Each structure stands twice: as structure tokens, then as C-alpha cells.
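Exercise: predict the fold of this chain.
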Amino acid sequence: MEKSTGNRGAMAASVVTLAVLAVLFAMREAQAIVVPTLMAFFLAVVAESPVAWLEKKGLPRVLSILLVVTGLAVALFVIGLVLGSSVQDLSRRVPEYQERLQDQIDSLLAGAGETGIGADAAGILDKLSPETALSLASGFLSGVSDLFSNAFLIFFIMVFMLLEVPSFSAKLEALGGSMGTWLSIGGSVRSYLAIKTLTSLATGVLVAIFLALVGIDFAVLWGLLAFLLNFVPNIGSILAAVPAVLMALLLNGLPSALLVAGGYVVINVLIGNVVEPRIMGEGLGLSTLVVFLSLILWGWLLGPVGMLLSVPLTTTLKIVLESRESTRPMAVLLGSGPASGNESP
């Protein structure tokens, strides 16, 4: 009897594993549909608060939705213009930066030759190029830029999601669903995205101002990159600093590069380790390892947008797992400690 029960359990686990793998690969193959839908969902979660606020002021829901969506569309349009023009200017100036980098390499090789390590230094420095060093930033910005081509679809889906909110609770009750779970998901994701957006905006503005003061080209572009990559946990702030530090090296040499690197460290420590924890409190209760692995998983599945949404997606999964007794142990494994399943974000 025990053996039969064990076999059924193993079979059930195998079926669940295969189903999860099938869903993941289906999401990867259907990125063109999944990415805009997920972006629309998270934008709708964030936009619901200002929509509800406008409704309390007496505006009809449809008009409130139109006002909020229009505001978001204008903001994204401005960001798109800045992003597009800056990337084009940067592409045109790459040959100039290539020449400057070659001068830096020749100077370093001359100094290295005097110390007897010229051959080793040459092998390393010959691999450097603006195209290689900026590829991470360019690839990420290209992935984010793809969203602008789908902007109409994203906002279209978002509008319909917001229109469905009033009837959503009634539908869940009719299906026997638990409103507590969905309210918890919405509250956690909305809180995280709101706080992260504000702290990322502060990071981007400080980076842009700092780089402009020290005379680095494309300060606004690097500030925008810092704003976007601040949503990527653990490694985002490091990746955001690479192109700006390289630009400082090309323009003004090693002392300027060290100054820019130090500025990034100060800004990110101030925002990430002082301001953000104070506002967010204990955060979302996710293990650091889980956050990093989710970054890799969602990035592989959905590209740069998956990296941006890795924490909200994993938090949503954790809350859903917490809602059922049978899956609560998995939620504890995702958490930052044994009691994380009972924490409130």
C-alpha cells in the first residue's frame, strides 16, 4: 500500500515537472505575445491606483483610464525620443571613440613595454573595443526599444484589463476564487513597482547630473540606462556603470574613469542600501539566491524585459504558492527565511 502511494506521488511529481517545463518552453516560444501581455498586466496593476484615485474625485472610470493611459503614453514617447536620438548619435561617434581607444592602448603598451610585460598587455588590450564594451548596454537598450514598437498593443491590452477590474471580483466569487490571494498579489506588486520606480528614477537623475558635471558624453543616455537597469536585481547597477566608465576612460583617461566608477558606487550605495531599504522596509521576502536565479530564468525566457520583471514575477509566484497549504513549503523555499511565508511585503 505504501509502495503504491509512493509510486503515485512520484508520478504526480513527474507530471507536474513536465507540465512546468512545457509551460516555460511555450512562454519562450511565444515571447511576441507573452512579453506585451505581461507588460500590460504590470502596467495595469500600477495604473489602477491613480485610476481609482481619479474615480474618487468624481471622474467616470473610462475617462480616468484614458487620462492615466495618456499620461503613461506621453512619458514613454518622450523616453523613446531621447533613447532613439542618443543611440543614433552614439553609433555615429563610435569610429571617433575607436581612435581614442587606440591611442589609450598605444600609450598603455608603451608604458608596459618599459616594464617587460608588453606582450601580455598587448594580448589583453587588443581585445578591447567600444563595440565590445558597449554591447551589453546596446543589447539591453535594443530589447527595451522593442517594447516601443509594441506600445499600441501593450496599451490596448492594458485598457481592457483596467476596464475589467470592477467585474473581476464578482467573477472570482462566481468561480469560488479567493479574493485575498489576488489582493495580496496586486498590493505586493504595486508596492514594489511604485517604490522601485521612484528609487530607479532618483538613481537615473543623480547619475545623469553627476556625469554631466564631470563632462561625460551622453550623460542623459547613461542616466536612462541606470534608471532601467536599476530594476534588474544584483547586477543591474554594475552593468549600468560599464559604458559610462569606458566613456570616461576614452575621453579623459584613467583618473576620470576611476572618478566615474566611484560616483556610481556612491550613488548606488546611497539609493540601494540607505534610501530603498528605509522606504521598502523588509522588502518582498525573497531569498537573494532566488532573486539571482529568477533573473537568469526570466531573462532566458523573455529577454531583457524578463530581467526587468524577474522580481515582480517571482513575487507573484511566491504569493500564489503561499495561498494553498499544499504548496506553502515551496513558498518558504523561495523566501528569505523560515518565517518568510508569513511576512507581509
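Check your answer against the key: The two ends are 43 Å apart (CA to CA).
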